[in-house]
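Problem: given the chain below (232 residues), write out its structure.
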Amino acid sequence: MTASKAVVLVGTLALLASTRATSAAEGGWTTLFDGTSTKAWRCYDKPDIPAGVWTIDNGTLKTMPGVKERCDLITREKYKDFELELEWKLPPGGNSGIMYRVGELGAPSETWHSGPEMQALDDAKHRDGTDPRTSAGALYGLIAPSNKTLHPAGEWNKAGIVVRGTHVEHWLNGKMVVEYEWGSRQLQTLIGDSKFKDMPRFAKEQDGYIAIQHHGEEAWFRNIRVRRLPSR
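Solution.
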């Protein structure tokens, strides 16, 4: 290869690298789990992730079933307005969920005492699947999903959550299945008629952690990423 051609090649590669970097920056996505590291996460109300509770299994983030002291994972950073994407998979009868705007309230609180939950569930074989308000994709216990496509146990489902200002959306396998307004009179009425009515911080945080639930049985997660959105 001549010197002039080498210079051209180097310049082309540098331009391609610069273009890719610019494109990534414009997208604004931050990878929360890339299949190899849990550094973006810790357990709720703990500084790290205790051994034997969660594991990395063939590039997925997996709960360990049957542990004595399970814990939900939370992001190390807080998010106010954001878009979250991930994939989840459950065994037959499996149950999990994704919480957002979670606050740490001190023992003996749980993630769901403050953070609303997008349900992850095997609707066909879990009793929660018989109530639309606790089925997969629902704003757990409050708003049933509509127009949803759910893949069965053992298959991957793609979930998305968008929070911008007071507007919240749940997405499941490419379709918006829940939409509501944070702090609205309608939401407060629903909360007042639910088990969350005695939780004074539920759906009150203006920013908070993203959480993934350890419900005691196996659950797998992958391709987890988030981007912050401009506030309205």
